[in-house]
Structure formats: C-alpha cells, structure tokens
Amino acid sequence: MTFQFRFQRMLLALLLATCCLYTLAAEPWPRSIGVSISSLENPYFVALAQGVRQKAKQLNPKTKFIITSAGYSAEMQIEQISTMIKQKVDLILVSASDENALADILLAARKQGIIVIGVDVRAQGAMQTVLTHNVLAGQLVCEYLANSLSGKGRVAIQTGPQVSSVIDRVNGCKQAWSKYPNLQLVSQTEDGEGSIWGGYTAMQQLIKQHGHVDAIFTINDRQALGTLQALQKAKQTQTKIGSVDGSQAVVNAITQGSAIIATASQSPGTMGQRAIEMAVALHQGGKATPELELMQPTLVTPNNSAQFKAWDANNPRQ
Question: Which residues of 214-245 are buried (b: 16+ CB within 10 A; e: fewer)?
Fold first, then answer.
C-alpha cells in the first residue's frame, strides 16, 4: 500500500467523521415529540404540556410537537399514538386514559425505537413514568378535613375518571378517614368527571340523595370549584371542601375564606420538564430506573395559601 493510497484513506475517514459529527450537531435530540394527554380542557394538562415545550425547546429550539387530547377515551388515544408512530416521532409522552389499555400500542412504539414516558398517571408499556404521589395527596387533604371537623361528622368523596391518579387519591382519602370512627362516609359514588360542571352536578345529586354533609373530598380542583358553586346555590355554606391540584383559582379561593379549605398541590410544569429529562437520559443510554418517580404534593390551607406560589395554565409552577 503506497503512502499516497494510505493518505487518501485517512483523508476519506476524516471527511466521513466530520460529516457524521456535523449531522449530529445539526440535529439535536429530540427532533419531534408526541404528547397524548387526557384532556386539554383541563388547565392542569395545559400547564404540563407547557412544561414539556419549555424543556424540549431548551434542548432543541426546532423540536416539533404533536399534542393531542383523548377526552379520557382509550380508543381515541390508541388512534392518536398510532399516528405518532407513523410520523416517526422520537419521543411519546402519554397520560393514559386507561392504565392497561394502551400497553400494546406503547410497546409497538418502543419496537420502532421511540422512547415512551408516562406522565401524571401509570401506563403499562411506558419505559418510565413521573407522577404525583397521589395516595399521599389524598391522605394529606382528608386528614386535614377530618381534623377540621374534630374527627366527627358526615363526609363524602366525589370521584372522577377512573385513571390511576384518581383511584390513588380516593384510596388515600379513605385510609386517612379510616382512623376516625366518628366520621360517617355517606357517599363515594358521585362522579364529577374531572370538570367544573361535573363537580357542580355531582354535588347537586349528592345533596338530593343524602342531604347535608360536613365535608367533601373532590379528586381535583375543577370539581372543587363546581362543588363550591352547587353548595352556594343550595345555601349549604358550612360544608368544607378539599381537593387535589394546587391551581391558582383554588389557592385564591382558600385565601379568600371560601368553603374550599385545602388542596394538595401538584407541579404540572415541573412534571413535564422531568419527563423530558427522563427521556434524554434513556436516549443517551441510561437505565429506566426507577420505573415510577413520585413527586411530593404540598398541602395548601388557609395557613399558607397567601404565600404559596400556585400554578395556572398561563404560568405553570416550575
């Protein structure tokens, strides 16, 4: 092999390496992200999506986004994720409408080399999931409600869409109230559907069937706001309300001395950012541990609401 031939091979190798490095530098990851969430009508999910955008844009200002809302329909969510797979996104973030129903489509995405991260609720098939410690959130709020009643009275739980976060919050609330033998749980079947209107109609139904209750736990802040409206209309102003989310609207209501006296705050913007960080670590060869990362809720009450920095859809808490 002549010196000239060896030189030409070395030059070609150098050119190829330079080209590859340029390509990598020109296409930072992630290039495209699919975000499939339960409902864009809920400001919580809007704030979560904003957190995703903010973090991803820091890594790659040219990142493209596909953001879809399934309206708590697993069938619709499967169709949306299937479209994301066909469009060859780098990453799918999913807030599952059903913990188990998406397993096959999420595994199909992973087989195509797509990283899949669950957010807000558990999702079979996701590589990792970041969510609030929802059992603790329910415990904190319902313990506070019980203490506000001196451990006795008629109480109720207003449930919602049967995703893992809701199920966990209800279980946490029941665990807290089980320690108080003088609390009577009169109802746990009314479904507020995760919305203000749902909370309003569910509270109306509870009043019609069970009359006055001393305290009610609603599974999110939107339902708490609707419940407050129903109680005001029924002139039942002594009923205490506790919920989960820590939205600006409910923190304001607590500060103003309304019937809502507690909420366990989540951090949707931070959750969205953390999901991107998890995905980047996996992309770089990291391990999917822990499988579930739990974010700690903060109890907001009249004692700290005025100083508490809440999130809202226009300014998600970071």
Answer: bbbbbbbbbbbbbbbbbbeeeeeeebbbbbbb
**Cα 250 to Cα 2, 214, 239, 246, 310, distances in angstroms:** 79, 19, 16, 7, 9
Q: Retrieve residue 244's tokens.
A: 């989960």
What domain range includes position 207? Answer: 134-265
- Residue 105 tokens, joined: 């489509």
What digits encode the pLDDT tens for the residues 237-260?
A: 899 999 999 999 999 999 999 999
Whether 255 is in a domain gets the answer: yes
pLDDT, tens digit (0-9, with 9 covering 90-100), for 68-77: 999 889 999 9
277 plus 250 within the same structural domain:
no
CATH at 68: 3.40.50.2300
CA distance 210 to 121: 32
Query: What size, in residues, is the chain?
Result: 318
Residue 245: inside a domain, yes or no? Answer: yes
At 122 the three-state DSSP class reads coil
Question: What is the average pLDDT score of the chain?
Answer: 91
HSE-up of residue 51 (Cα within 13 Å, Cβ side): 26
Overall domain count for the chain: 2
Same domain, 275 and 211: no
